[in-house]
Amino acid sequence: MVALDRRVRLLGRAMRRAASISSMTPADIEKAQQQGAPPALLARLFGRRRPGVDVENRVVDLSGGRRRLRIYRPSGTPRASRPVVVNFHGGGWTLGSVEGGDWLCSGVSADLDAVVVSVDYRLAPTDRFPAAVEDCYEATRWVAEHAAELGVDTDRLAVMGDSAGGNLAAVVSLLARDRSGPAIASQILIYPATDLTLASPSLTTNAEAPVLSTDEVRAFRGHYLGDDEAVALDPRASPLLADDHTGLPPALVQVAEHDPIRDDGVRYAEALRDAGVPVRMTEYVGMPHGYMSLPGVCRSAPQALHEVVAELRDRLVARHPHRQEAR
Questions:
Q1: Cα distance between residue 105 and residue 125, in whole Å
Q2: Strand order in the sheet with 65-74
Q3: Mind telling me which residue stretches traverse the membrane in this protein (predicted)?
Q4: 327 within some domain
Q5: Where on the phi/psi map is residue 255: left (φ > 0), alpha (ψ -120 to 50), or beta?
Q6: CATH of the domain at 196
Q7: Is 212 a domain residue?
Q8: Do the domain assignments include residue 325?
Q9: Percent of the residues in the chain that have a pLDDT greater than 90, as a whole number
Q10: Domain extent for 115
C-alpha cells in the first residue's frame, strides 16, 4: 500500500475537525447545504473553472419540482452538434453542489470539446431515496429530448459522476436500459458507491481513511435511505445488486487505494465484465476518496481527469468519425 501524501493527511484531519457527517443533525446538514463552501476554499481545494468554457445555469421542470442544470460548453463559434456528458456531483446524496464540480466539468468540456450538463438533484435528508435517482434520470432524458436546443448529439451521450454521483450514474445507466432510454454510450464512475448493504471488505481495511471514514459512509447512507435496511437491496440504491448487468454502457471505473468504498468500484467493474460489458478499471494508488474533487491537494487529479477525457474521446468521438464536424 502506498502511503498517503502528507497534504492529504493534513486535509483529512482538518476536515474531520471542522465537521463530520457522523455528528451532524438534519438541521446542521440543511444549514451546510444552504451555505456551501467559501469561494476562496472552493478555488484552492476544488480547482478553478477552465478558461475558454462558458457556463449557463438553467432551471427545468421535473416531476419532483424545478431543478437547476449547470451547462458547460466551449466558448467561441458553436458547432452543429457536440457530444454531451451528463454529470452528477458527489457529496453522499446529502451535501455537495454543481458549483463544486466546476473544475471537472469545465475540464471535460474544454478537453473533449463537448457540452457537459451537471444536475442539481434533490438532497437528503429532506428528500430521501429515490428522489435523487428520479431527478438524475429525468434530467438525462430532458437533455436527450432537448438535444437540438442544446446543440448536442444524442448518439454521443454519456453519464458521469463521482462518489454518490458515481452511484447515480450507474443507476441512471440501468434505468435507461430498462425504461425508455435514452441510449447511453459511456458511463464514467469515479470512486462510486455501488453496494449500500455495506458488504465491501475495504469498509474494514480502510475504516479510518482520511476524507471519508466507514462511520461517515454509514451516516451518509442513513440520511439517504432512512431507517429501513431493506431499502439498500433496491438496485436503484445498490446497482451492484441488479439481477442483470448485460447491455449496460461501456464503463470507466476509477477507485482510490485509501477509500472505504474502494471495493464497491472493484466489485462493480467485475460484475460488468462478467456480464460482457467493456470496462476499464484504474486504481489511483496513494489517493483518498474524493481525489478528483480535490485537485488543489491530490496530485493524481489531473491524471485522472486526463483518463476520463481519453475514455470519453474513445467512446464518443473516435467511434463516430462521421460526426466530427470541423470547428
A1: 26
A2: 53-62, 65-74, 115-119, 82-88, 152-162, 186-190, 251-258, 279-288
A3: none
A4: no
A5: beta
A6: 3.40.50.1820
A7: yes
A8: no
A9: 78
A10: 6-320
134-154: pLDDT as tens digits: 999 999 999 999 999 999 999
Q: Which residue stretches of 155-201 are H helix?
A: 164-178
Pairing of strands 279-288, 115-119: unpaired
**Whole-number Å distance between alpha carbons of 325 and 327:** 6
The structural domain count of the chain equals 1
Q: How far apart are CA 136 and CA 14, in angstroms?
A: 32
**C-alpha–C-alpha distance, residues 314 and 76, integer Å:** 24
pLDDT of residue 22: 81
Task: Return the active site residues.
Answer: 163, 259, 289
Instruction: State residue 42's pLDDT score.
Output: 60
Within a domain: 287: yes
Whether the bond between 130 and the residue before it is cis, its omega within 30 degrees of 0, is: yes
For residue 257, give the 3-state DSSP assignment: strand
pTM check: above 0.90: yes
Number of residues written out for the chain: 327
**Residue 327 confidence (pLDDT):** 39
- Grid coordinates representing 43 are 478555488
